[in-house]
Amino acid sequence: MPVGMLTCCAGVFAGGLLGSLLRRWIGEDMRALLPRLFGLTAICNGMLSVCKAAQMPIVTLAVILGGWLGHALHLERGAARGLDAALRRIPRPEGFDMEQYVTVTAVLCASGFGLYAVMVESFSGDRAQISSKAMLDFFSAIVFGSSLGPSVSLIALPQLGSFTLVFLLARVLMPIMDAPMTANFIACGGALTIAAGMRMAGIRDYPLIDLLPALALVLPLTPLLAGVFG
User: Using one digit for the tens of pLDDT, what is the confidence trace for 142-187?
Assistant: First the structure.
């Protein structure tokens, strides 16, 4: 039973609702500041993950190839259109930022740390990491719910979908993921977390959804190129 995974998704749902309820007591300046502060913390956490890379050139190649593939497939554009269509009947606060909403969705649903935590729970039953992810996502949802409204709660649905897929695939992937593959996967997720943090902080507008294929590419690239960059 994926208790940790379900708790994480429930935390996003509850946090988004709570943040939207607290919106009236949080000033406009503070609502603008909180996402930037969260972006700063995301950059710091991403840097720690990148430092765990076993072969940084492989991680770099995965990010470049993954970004190229995602851009060629117009993943971010398609995700933005899909989310916009899904939110048409949901009340949005004044000044709703769809780009920020897409960023938050990507961070909550497809962060390297989150996906790895789900894989660990699926394979070993250890819920320590997914519990940490659940706590982080709960407060993240509160922060973004205060600026983006109750629509943040709906991110729990795609998060549940992506986590369930990874939970099922983990039984196949985890036995073949050695230490270098795991380290490079976490580092690749860290690179994407830095990109997300820079986007939330308003530093650079990286196409975050377009970069997501890098998380899949880094796994086969590690054993293929280990002899070159080992």
Answer: 988 888 888 999 999 999 999 999 899 888 887 888 889 989 988 9
Which segments of the chain does DSSP mark as H helices, in order?
Answer: 3-22, 28-50, 56-72, 75-86, 98-110, 112-124, 128-148, 156-173, 179-200, 208-211, 213-229
Half-sphere exposure for 50 (CA within 13 Å, toward CB): 18
Q: What is the pTM of this model?
A: 0.84
CA–CA dist 83, 98 (Å, integer) = 9
**Type of residue at 25:** W
Contact between 40 and 193 (Cβ < 8 Å): no
CA dihedral 48, 49, 52, 58 (to 10 degrees): -130
Domains of the chain by residue range? 3-224
